[in-house]
Amino acid sequence: MRSSAPGSATPERCSGKQRVVPGGAPRYAFAPLDGKVHDRAAFSCGVPSLDAYLEKRAAQDMRKRVAVTHVLTPAGSAGEILGYYTLSVASVALDELPEELRRKLPDYPQIGAILLGRLAVDTRHRGQGLGELLLISALERSLELSATQLGAYAVVVDALEGAEGFYQRYGFMPFQDQVRRLYLPMRAVVELLT
Ligand SMILES: CC(C)(COP(=O)(O)OP(=O)(O)OC[C@H]1O[C@@H](n2cnc3c(N)ncnc32)[C@H](O)[C@@H]1OP(=O)(O)O)[C@@H](O)C(=O)NCCC(=O)NCCS
Questions:
Q1: Residue at 130 is within a domain
Q2: Predicted confidence (pLDDT) at residue 160 exceeds the cutoff of 50
Q3: Is the pLDDT of residue 169 over 70?
Q4: How many domains does the chain have?
Q5: Complete edge-to-edge strand list for the sheet that includes strand 83-93
Q6: Nearest to 85 by CA among 134, 141, 155
Q7: In a domain, 3, yes or no
Q8: Which of 56, 150, 151, 152 places its Cα 20 to 30 Å from the Cα of 143?
Q9: CATH number of the domain to which 29 belongs
Q10: Measuring from atom 9 of ligand 1, which residue has the nearest CA?
Q11: Is 1's C-beta closer than 6 angstroms to any atom of ligand 1?
Q12: Structural domain contains residue 35
């Protein structure tokens, strides 16, 4: 996988799939959700709770510093939301990690992580690589934060039923006894993005 600049993205066709490449004229842009600019009501991903979150709660959560929502829009149409994801801080109990990872970590009961709480693509734009584009953006942002701003050992996701496979194909692993809560250590994020 190749990474893109965090604020903009250009997909290319590769074996019939769209992939993100650096450079070129950006076709898409990322921005923090802005209720005055982005048309939240028009977004529909087929999962009512994710649509309702974006329309009714995401802006409030941003004001309260609970989670930040990043939206993906076409480069020339800033109001249209093609997809979104949310980031917030989280912690992971050390005993939830496998022994071989735990051994290399300091002996704290909990360690810091970044929670990719929600991620969704509008149903009209599925299967074009936008889910991957959103995930790459979330991972790049998390990596950047964890390098200099905010200690975070891993990115954690709470996958909806049926979406575990989406994350697993990028290396996310389930926590012990929790099939839908998955994590990707930051060092694996580095490998994935380079
Ligand atoms: C899951 C979701 C984000 C995927 O978006 P998308 O734009 O269709 O995905 P992409 O086109 O970027 O697909 C990237 C790869 O993931 C695969 N993929 C997509 N959805 C998948 C799923 N549910 N399970 C396993 N693999 C999946 C694709 O086949 C593709 O693989 P390929 O390149 O080998 O063909 C989208 O279906 C969605 O918004 N679903 C509803 C909300 C949801 O489930 N969110 C995730 C959990 S919070």
A1: yes
A2: yes
A3: yes
A4: 1
A5: 17-21, 8-14, 28-32, 68-74, 83-93, 110-121, 154-158, 178-185, 173-175
A6: 134
A7: no
A8: 56
A9: 3.40.630.30
A10: 131
A11: no
A12: yes
